[in-house]
Amino acid sequence: MTMPAALAEVVADFTEVTGQDKLALLLEFAGELPPLPPELQEAAMEPVPECQSPLFLHVDAADPARVRLYFSAPPEAPTTRGFASILATGLDGQSAAEILAVPDDFYAELGLAALISPLRLRGMSAMLTRIKRRIRSQTRP
């Protein structure tokens, strides 16, 4: 599976734990979601309606060698925040080519399917799909 080293490390962290420890790790990630920079307002971000909780993202691919990703999700949505934080940790600062090469279903490797509803997992898939779409629209010649 092709993915940047930072994302592969996150996946490895999840494969090293089992059962409820996976949920605890997801909640750890939720607590580590970086805050938005002061100049970025949630109202200017793209909503991801496929997520069960409100989630907004912003993709800055002005420099295709170092794509910046920003996420906003409320504290009362720990699963959504956890997914966003996984993507931020694993993909923020990576090149457009590296992000575009990430398999759309990489999240299956996290082993959360037995613990989290398919609807919530589709939210993570939707986040990645939107990130890739934004990168493609910003990096086309």
UniProtKB/TrEMBL annotation:
InterPro entries: Fe-S_metab-assoc_dom (IPR003808)
Coiled-coil ranges (or none): none
Protein's name according to its UniProt entry: Cysteine desufuration protein SufE
SUPFAM superfamilies: SufE/NifU (SSF82649)
Short name of one Pfam family: SufE
Signal peptide (UniProt feature, chain positions): none
PANTHER family per the UniProt record, alphabetical: SUFE-LIKE PROTEIN 2, CHLOROPLASTIC, SULFUR ACCEPTOR PROTEIN CSDE
Sequence similarity: Belongs to the SufE family.
Fe-S metabolism associated domain span: 13-133
